[in-house]
Design brief:
- By secondary structure, the protein is an alpha/beta fold.
- Helices cover 31% and strands 12% of the residues.
- It contains 4 helices and 4 strands; from the N terminus they run H-E-H-E-E-H-E-H.
- The protein has a 4-stranded parallel beta sheet.
- Strand 3, helix 3 and strand 4 form a beta-alpha-beta unit.
- The longest helix has 17 residues.
- The radius of gyration is 16 Å and the shape is globular.
- The termini are far apart.
Length: 140
């Protein structure tokens, strides 16, 4: 069975969901979401994020926001969406954002900027394996 995928680049690999159905452009397979969220969760843990922490999410691209929320939930933290136009999320010590949104946010949170070079480097060297219980800290 062949799949036709219309995409802006020639190097796009057609992906399938767990059910085997083809995914539309801009969608993420469950396995990829899990691996990407594991990597981002490890980056958050190395920055000191902990279970029970409130983590602000100021991320607009849909896939990035889904991965960010999944990563926050994986470490047992509480995702707090920051709506466009707002400058912070009350009570959030950490936050995840992009360069485009960072300029509009306060410094009240420790912001992880997804598209900064240093973040990308840490993300790429992080394991995408499932998080082990020893990596997670207990809620204090």
């Amino acid at each position: 069975m062949s799949i036709t995928v219309t995409a802006p680049a020639d190097n796009v690999i057609p992906m399938r969901s767990r059910s085997g159905a083809p995914l539309a452009a801009g969608q993420l397979a469950d396995a990829d979401l899990d691996r990407w969220a594991n990597r981002l969760a490890r980056v958050l843990l190395t920055r000191g994020a902990d279970a029970g922490d409130r983590i602000a999410l100021a991320v607009d691209p849909r896939i990035e926001s889904v991965v960010a929320e999944a990563a926050v939930r994986k470490i047992g933290a509480i995702p707090v969406p920051v709506r466009v136009g707002a400058s912070t999320a009350p009570g959030a010590g950490f936050g995840i954002t992009t360069k485009a949104r960072r300029a509009h946010l306060t410094d009240g949170a420790d912001w992880l900027v997804l598209d900064e070079r240093s973040t990308l480097q840490r993300y790429l060297v992080s394991s995408d394996a499932p998080l082990a219980a020893t990596e997670l800290r207990a809620v204090s």
